[in-house]
Write a sequence for this structure.
């Protein structure tokens, strides 16, 4: 029940910090959309909304650190719709499994992303003395 | 530093606290 359209953290972060931040900012937007599916599956549907709010703040912080934040692509509304439609077609059991998978994939994405950014920032600090 | 932002941990906490029906 892995959602193939959700991004993994590392592939886009092999090169420089800018590329890494770009990947994370775009990835976060995709996960923000995916959390909409969690609202129907969650016992407390205010949590997915809070997650989206914090993701928005994080994307702003990331963009502030970027040289070219305008290059971060925003998902179109039809792309958003497609992502949610793919999930909506599933039966109830698969929807639940997909929700679990989104949570797992999102957690891994965040942990990997912050670890990678930490490596880049520490390396830069070291270079700058 | 961006990696020191508390938002990363806050989002992970919410993910961990999210209980599915």
């Amino acid at each position: 029940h892995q959602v193939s359209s959700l991004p993994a953290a590392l592939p886009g972060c092999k090169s420089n910090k800018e590329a890494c931040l770009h990947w994370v900012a775009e990835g976060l937007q995709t996960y923000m959309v995916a959390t909409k599916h969690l609202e129907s599956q969650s016992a407390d549907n205010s949590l997915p909304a809070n997650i989206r709010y914090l993701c928005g703040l994080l994307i702003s912080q990331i963009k502030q650190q970027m040289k070219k934040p305008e290059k971060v692509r925003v998902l179109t509304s039809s792309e958003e719709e497609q992502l949610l439609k793919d999930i909506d077609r599933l039966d109830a059991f698969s929807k639940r499994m997909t929700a679990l998978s989104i949570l797992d994939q999102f957690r891994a994405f965040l942990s990997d992303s912050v670890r990678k950014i930490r490596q880049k920032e520490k390396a830069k600090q070291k270079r700058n003395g | 530093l961006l990696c020191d932002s508390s938002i990363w941990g806050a989002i992970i906490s919410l993910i961990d606290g999210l209980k599915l029906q």
Remarks:
- The mean pLDDT of chain B is 93.
- The interface with chain A takes residues 1-3, 5, 7-8, 10-12, 14-21 of chain B (CB under 8 Å).
- The CA atoms of residues 14 and 20 of chain B lie 12 Å apart.
